[in-house]
Amino acid sequence: MNAQPILKVVIHGASGRMGQALLRLAAQMPDIDVVAAVARRAPSQRVIDGVPHFAASELSGLPAFDVAIDFSLPDGVAALARLCAERGAALVCGTTGLDAEGEAALAALAGRAPLVWASNYSLGVAVLTDLVARAAALLADWDCDIVESHHIHKKDAPSGTALSLGQAAQGQGVQPHYASLRAGDIVGEHTVQFAGLGERIELVHRASNRDIFARGALEAARRLVARAPGRYSVAELLTA
């Protein structure tokens, strides 16, 4: 029996909520070796639970890796994308609110290595996005509203997931309206409502545990590394 190949992974944004979930779950997966964890500031310890830690300013010193998983801040994405392009490494990016530099760096990377950028790595949200597009195509003259709720620490509004759901509706000629709520420790809830005269349809996804996003990102990383250079969607990777 052939041994399972080991995937060498960098976690970028390791000090955040998603970064911590990725580190915890990856440690339980025998086919994944986290070769580096990168945080914004210099680490107080260089090695934690067997994983070398680096500051964002030390990217050039990272060991060899197959794929980077990024859940950081918008201003850190461009440098990581350029490093992945230089090394021909894949990138799974979940950072939202990107600026023009970040967008350009991702576009350049896709010409040299496989890339997936998504606002949400949940399989349920991938299915929800498909359902929204189908509903919008059939209900083009109905009102479309997207309501999203997240924890009080989330900065961007509407959320990246809400905007992606809105793009699915817009692709069918429907213009959505958005509402955002920030309260408590809500992991993430998204409701897409189509309202007509005397009736309405609600499509809802509720995340009760952040691990669903981390698991989805790790699975996307597994499936991305074997792909040719280019830009891929979560649905292409997780439902293939």
UniProtKB/TrEMBL annotation:
Binding site residues for NAD(+): G13, A14, S15, G16, R17, M18, G94, T95, T96, A118, S119, N120, Y121
Record-given protein name: 4-hydroxy-tetrahydrodipicolinate reductase
Active site, per annotation: H150, K154
Xref: HAMAP family: DapB
One Pfam family it belongs to: DapB_N
Gene designation per UniProt: dapB
GO molecular function, one term: 4-hydroxy-tetrahydrodipicolinate reductase
Physiological role: Catalyzes the conversion of 4-hydroxy-tetrahydrodipicolinate (HTPA) to tetrahydrodipicolinate.
Keywords of this entry: Amino-acid biosynthesis, Cytoplasm, Diaminopimelate biosynthesis, Lysine biosynthesis, NAD, NADP, Oxidoreductase
Amino-acid biosynthesis keyword on record: yes
Domain of life: Bacteria
Family: Belongs to the DapB family.
